[in-house]
């Protein structure tokens, strides 16, 4: 993501640094230097480091929410009718989003490791509403005793972990989202995992 405005450029740089180093490992000075600006200019456009982090996370959330809403419309085009194929389409769009915007999963993974622990409201404000959207959409197609929320969390844990760490190839090198072959393998694995966890009809049984 790139922006032309001063504020947008600062947010782009801050997103990249917060994703790479975490909130706690990134200073306002580092952000200003990477953006080619002084700290006063950064403060003028965005405010302090906390303000900057909140703006970065808000922008990331809006991107993720827009992508999820579009994916839900595509996956479940017929209102009120969830299908197994729709669930798998939703899964694919989520993997696509994470591959196209690796900085967003990285921001959340830092939070999993207690980064920015003093900014405690983001999960309730951003994560819970999106999780509710997914579980409400998927629940009609699965048995009542299936824990849809835990399956959704499993997809998030796996996708974020694969995006950040990848897998080792035969020579010990890491392969991840930027490797088309490994991404295809990962996507196929997630299809099998979610199909089994939600007890969906298999793709071969369509």
Automatic annotation (TrEMBL):
It holds the Pfam family TetR_N. Gene3D superfamilies: Tetracycline Repressor, domain 2. It comes from the Bacteria. InterPro entries: Homeodomain-like_sf, HTH-type_TetR-like_transc_reg, HTH_TetR, Tet_transcr_reg_TetR-rel_C_sf. It comes from Actinomadura fibrosa. Keywords: DNA-binding, Transcription, Transcription regulation. Residues 4-64 form the HTH tetR-type domain. Residues 27-46 bind DNA. This is TetR/AcrR family transcriptional regulator.
